[in-house]
Specification:
The structure is a single chain. The chain is α+β, with helices and mostly antiparallel strands. Helices cover 55% and strands 11% of the residues. It has a six-stranded antiparallel sheet with strand order 11-12-15-16-17-18. A five-stranded mixed sheet has the order 5-6-8-7-9, sandwiched between helices. Helix 14 packs across helix 16, helix 15 packs parallel to helix 17 and helix 18 packs parallel to helix 20. 33% of the residues are buried.
Length: 802
């Protein structure tokens, strides 16, 4: 059974790699331009790999037998019979007491030379012949030879057991993932059924009309007070966010509803569930995650196209933007709650977290050309695509496993842990790998150390320490003898050795680390402070062998009381030398939270931010430092350099918004720095989000920042985001003559269309009665369509005498 399971998994990985990799290549080459055909190819490749891997054993396809890598390396044996003197062969002079080493023939006329197949036999008293036949090789030796290679055999056994563990874990993890997916499906049904029904008659009528057009039964509309985006749930139920329905106007709500009904029309919820189940089944295939993301995006684009055709592209684009904004806020709130999810995992949400918003809105506003094919031709095309891809996969030679591995599991440790658990003892296991050093610690019950924490005074059961460093393996075992004493044994590279002075020094060092991990670094630091003060504690932190121990000692020193500027500066330097980003980031945040850092210390810490490998760690440090960031010019320059080092726009945006967060005062220097830093962001959405946050923090006074704000807005490529950013400036601040002129300057960089007209109409509400400003306003309206220009002119009727 396990051989068949192993073969199926290997063939599935081959087929899915061929199919998904092929479709990805076609897509990248630009041969799949129509979204409908892209979706057909991705869907056929994703689900077809499971089908072809299952059907292939029934076909007559070429089979490739894998080498017997599972078989354990045989240990050559020799007979124990004494070697007797015997008659020498005349052709071999001076040889006595010989043995023969025989290599079986490979069957093709050449002798096999694999060491694994060599056997050693003792000679018989009879005359030894040297057979030179093609199917036999006889080697004469003066004693039995042992051709086994312990290191090779151990490496092969380790590889075999590792592969066996992987293959045995695959179905367990797959079953767990499938069960979890089905449980989430069931939980989503229960959650949705508990929501209140929508009592909006207009929406219900619109849903019935759209459902009739789509050819599906009218869905049940429900209102959700907590979810940020509309979604389709099992049982043909559409959930609409309460806040969103209050924000959107009538046409926008109908467009959003049309998008969700398009999901019902396409049966996307069932496809989504099937894709998640297949993804869990083939969790070892990394391309599955790419395929699931592609299928989700293509489903959203198809639903957008249908909804735009039925309810209008502009209302849908505006509704999509509002959904994405609410979704971003909900996601940020969920991140702060650590583990909360803004939306159910299996839901087909309109504003999905991975959905490229601007690409969808551009497709809506530009209008996607149809492929011009009839439904019947599309169905035939899907069948041909699926059949062609399956034929390609079935043409791949089938991998056959003759013998699957059997997992060798040493249960002695498990038995010891089990017996300790039955006796009520706690079992502690630690594995630490850092800077090329591996250390494993196991002990049962409690340990008691001496005053210096350099030795174990008593223990309940047994303590085992293993360290592998610089190619040398050391192991210590301390066991209670049941009479109040201890039995200690020490091994060096697998050989038991007496405990000499170097071994005792190593044991003392290891016991200090065990004591620190068991009790925390607090007692150690307090003892050092009593003996040698802060200098002793700092020296000990510098000698910490691992980043985790160094970070723990730094936190313990900070917890011991307020530290001087010099001590904090030294701790920043010691933290900076850690190689583990997590420990370094945690130490930096502990230093930030300990006290308000001096400007020089803030600069020093900000200069360390680019040394982190990941944007997440950089962003966390900068967000923690932002509330106390000094308005010093050098600090702001170092802060900008740190932001410039981010790779992603999201992390840049979060770091910049943290600088002007509502939780602390946004000084003019902070606002100017944040507006200038927004120019480092490439994406329109993230840059606009930074600017709207800055507008909100201006507290009504926009004039000092208006010119820089408009300069940043002009770096946005899309008119929609430009308009949104400028309207936010007018809504959150007082619009005087200077601000109005800057808004008009921003409108000049927009195309003569809907967004420029909307911006000018929004400005008209705040426009001062200044003839020069009004004249420039009318100048900005030129170039608009007759309809839009009439709307813009009518907006300033209140400034024009009748």
């Amino acid at each position: 059974m396990i051989e068949a399971l192993t073969g199926w998994l290997l063939n599935y990985l081959v087929h899915s790699t061929v199919l998904l990799g092929g479709v990805w290549t076609l897509e990248r080459a630009g041969w799949l331009k129509q979204p409908a055909w892209r979706e057909a190819f991705w869907r056929a490749a994703f689900f077809g790999a499971v089908l072809t891997a299952s059907v292939q054993p029934l076909t007559q396809v070429t089979r490739v037998a894998l080498p017997d890598v599972w078989a354990p390396t045989p240990t050559p044996t020799s007979t124990q019979a004494p070697l007797l003197a015997h008659e020498q062969d005349p052709g071999v002079e001076g040889v006595s007491n010989v043995g023969t080493m025989t290599t079986p023939s490979t069957g093709d006329g050449n002798a096999a030379t694999s060491a694994a197949s060599l056997t050693v036999t003792a000679p018989s008293p009879a005359r030894v012949q040297v057979d030179r036949a093609a199917d036999r090789l006889t080697v004469i030796a003066d004693h039995p030879a042992d051709l086994s290679d312990d290191s090779m055999r151990q490496r092969r056994a380790l590889l075999r057991d590792g592969l066996a563990a992987l293959l045995l874990s695959w179905p367990l993890i797959a079953l767990f993932g499938i069960g979890l997916t089905l449980l989430r499906w069931w939980a989503l049904r229960r959650q949705v059924r508990a929501l209140a029904l929508c009592d909006d008659v207009e929406l219900r009528d619109a849903a019935a009309e759209l459902a009739a057009i789509a050819g599906v039964r009218a869905p049940t509309l429900r209102v959700s007070p907590q979810w940020a985006s509309p979604l389709v749930a099992p049982g043909a139920q559409v959930c609409l966010p309460q806040r969103l329905m209050r924000t959107l106007d009538g046409q926008q709500r109908v467009a959003v509803l049309a998008h969700e009904i398009a999901h019902l029309r396409r049966r996307d919820l069932a496809w989504r569930l099937a894709a998640r189940l297949v993804s869990q089944l083939g969790w070892l295939q990394p391309l599955n995650r790419l395929a699931v993301r592609r299928l989700d995006l293509l489903a959203e684009l198809a639903c957008d196209a249908w909804a735009a055709a039925e309810a209008g592209a502009m209302p849908l684009a505006e509704g999509l933007y509002v959904c994405a904004r609410d979704m971003a806020a909900a996601t940020a709130a969920a991140e702060r709650r650590r583990g909360a999810r803004p939306m159910p995992v299996l839901a087909s949400a309109m504003a999905a977290a991975r959905s490229p918003l601007m690409a969808r809105m551009d497709a809506l506003l530009a209008g996607s050309p149809t492929d011009g094919t009839t439904p019947a031709r599309r169905r035939l095309g899907r069948v041909l695509i699926a059949g062609g891809l399956c034929a390609v996969a079935l043409a791949v030679p089938m991998l056959v496993i003759g013998k699957a591995p059997r997992l060798n599991v040493d249960l002695s440790g498990v038995g010891g842990a089990f017996s300790s658990a039955l006796s009520g003892m706690k079992v502690t296991r630690q594995v630490m790998i850092s800077n090329g050093v591996e250390r494993r610690v196991n002990y049962s019950g409690d340990l008691e150390f001496n005053g210096d924490e350099t030795d174990v005074v008593s223990l309940d059961d047994k303590l085992s320490i293993m360290e592998r460093a610089d190619g040398v393996t050391r192991r210590l075992e301390i066991a209670a003898d049941g009479k109040g004493g201890q039995v200690r044994r020490f091994w060096l590279d697998g050989d038991m050795k007496p405990i000499d002075a170097p071994a005792q020094a190593w044991i003392t060092e290891q016991i200090e680390l065990v004591a620190e991990s068991a009790q925390g670094s607090g007692p150690r630091v307090e003892r050092l402070l009593r003996k040698g003060g802060v200098e002793a504690a700092l020296a000990d932190i510098g000698k910490a062998p691992e980043s985790m121990a160094r970070r723990s000692r730094i936190e313990a020193l900070l917890d011991s009381g307020p530290q001087s500027d010099d001590t904090v500066s030294q701790l920043i330097g010691l933290s900076a030398r850690m190689k583990d980003d997590f420990q370094r980031r945690t130490a930096f945040i502990a230093l930030i939270q300990h006290r308000t850092l001096a400007p020089a210390q803030q600069r020093e810490l900000l200069e360390q931010v680019p040394t982190f490998k990941g944007d997440f760690d950089r962003r966390e440090v900068m967000a923690a430092l932002s509330p106390q960031l000094a308005s010093d010019a050098g600090v702001m320059t170092a802060w900008q350099q740190a932001v410039r080092g981010f790779a992603g726009d999201f992390d840049k945006r979060v770091a910049i918004v943290a600088l002007i967060d509502e939780d602390h005062e946004a000084t003019p220097e902070r606002l100017r720095t944040a507006i200038a830093a927004s120019g480092m962001i490439n994406g329109d959405f993230d840059r606009r989000t930074v600017l709207t946050s800055a507008a909100h923090q201006m507290r009504g006074e926009a004039a000092p920042f208006a010119a820089a704000y408009v300069d940043a807005v002009q770096g946005i490529s899309g008119d929609f985001d430009r308009r949104t950013a400028m309207i936010a400036l007018m809504d959150d601040t007082r619009v005087d003559r200077e601000v109005a002129l800057q808004v008009l300057r921003a409108s000049g960089g927009m195309s003569a269309g809907f967004d420029r007209a909307e911006l000018l109409i929004a400005l008209a509400e705040h426009l001062p009665a200044d003839p020069e400003v009004v004249a420039q306003y009318r100048q900005a309206a030129r170039g608009l369509s007759t309809h839009d220009r009439g709307r813009v002119e009518a907006a300033i009727d209140h400034l024009t005498p009748t």
